[in-house]
């Protein structure tokens, strides 16, 4: 998933928005951005809380233990570490 925007919600954490490119993401999954991992603490779409999101869904992912500086617009969230040379279609998110 390529990050479209990053927000900080007081007393909740950091929310990143974007569209899931392929596969599925669930609450509790561990995702990679650059060389760091983060646990998905919540998923929302259009003010509705979800347990999972599938390819094509536009969602916001909540990370409670992250800082806004950990993410930037255009970064790619994925389900496994990588060097960034893989085609985006191979990423789960």
From TrEMBL:
Region listing for Disordered, in residue ranges: 74-93
Gene3D superfamilies reported in the protein's UniProt record: Translation factors
Origin superkingdom: Bacteria
GO molecular function, one term: GTP binding
Positions of the Translation elongation factor EFTu-like domain: 13-77
Signal peptide: none
PANTHER family: ELONGATION FACTOR TU, MITOCHONDRIAL (PTHR43721:SF22), ELONGATION FACTOR TU-RELATED (PTHR43721)
Protein name per UniProt: Iron-regulated elongation factor Tu Tuf-like protein
Organism the protein comes from: Mycolicibacterium cosmeticum
Organismal lineage: Bacteria, Bacillati, Actinomycetota, Actinomycetes, Mycobacteriales
């Amino acid at each position: 998933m390529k990050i479209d925007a990053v927000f900080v919600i007081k007393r909740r954490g950091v929310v990143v928005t974007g569209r899931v490119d392929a596969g599925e993401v669930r609450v509790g999954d561990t995702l990679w951005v650059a060389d760091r991992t983060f646990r998905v603490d919540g998923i929302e779409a259009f003010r509705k809380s979800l347990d999972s999101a599938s390819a094509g869904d536009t969602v916001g992912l909540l990370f409670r233990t992250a800082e806004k500086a950990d993410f930037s617009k255009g970064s790619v969230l994925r389900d496994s570490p990588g060097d960034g040379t893989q085609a985006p279609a191979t990423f789960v998110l």
